[in-house]
Amino acid sequence: MFVVLALTTVFFTVGLIVFGAVVRVTDSGLGCNRDWPLCGGTIFPPLDNLTAWIEWTHRLLAMLIGVLGVGMLVFAFRAFRRQNRAVLYGTLVAAGLFAVQSFLGALVVMLDLPPTMVTVHLGTAMLLLAALLFTYVGATYKPAAQYAHDHVSTLLYATTGVSLIIILTGALVRGSGATLACIDWPLCNGSALPFDQGPLQTVHMTHRFAVLAFGVLLGVMIWYAYRSNRPTLVKRTTVAAFVLYLMQSAVGALFVLTAAAPIWGTLHVGLAAMTWAALAVGSFVEAAHSGTLKFGYVSEA
Questions:
Q1: What is the pTM of this model?
Q2: Residue 298's pLDDT is what?
């Protein structure tokens, strides 16, 4: 039951992140004015106020995740308090991150959507997703072999960390108003190095260069994963992350070329979350094999 709840909560958390992008690209963050937890002073927004309903639906998804999280805590305590306590601790961390995320969501609304706070809000959501995936991996995965932590392990952890940094810099591009500072792709207003065009173009193009570097890092990670004969799940998650990265890059280009059409902005964030999730799972599996994480394993994934 815990595994079912964990996987369901992961699914809805990805949905929450994607719907958060919908809120952002449709400028619905203040659809309920600055009210929280109410929406414009009422529980349900007016039927003719679309932006309010978008923001309210986002909050409703968050509340659903909270309910699922309570269920996870109950079953984690019952199933893992004596053995495999890492899963119980991971669930407690996820609960704490959810509380922080909810608090930040309220602050974002009440403080009129400050870009830095919006970025921290997104980053916390990604950490929550990783914590939930940690509990799922811990409850279901049993490594077939153990080996020592090495440079490949470090590279995978670093690649996973860089993916989160890329997500946060992308949020800052949006928050700083630099989304359409470059109106073409892959160049920026006809220039490969537009740093003399202004600060917004610099912010935008720096993000693109960082994304390119991340792609190279992912390629190196895949090469090392296969060269060192890493576990199958590590290989598959790194390849999946690279495929998702390519899709996200293409969607990012479409987002610019369509003058920030909401559909592409939403998909861009969703694919970023899935890339991060794939690498997080790969990192947890690698940690289980290298002894960095010690689970009391209960079944084979």
A1: 0.90
A2: 40
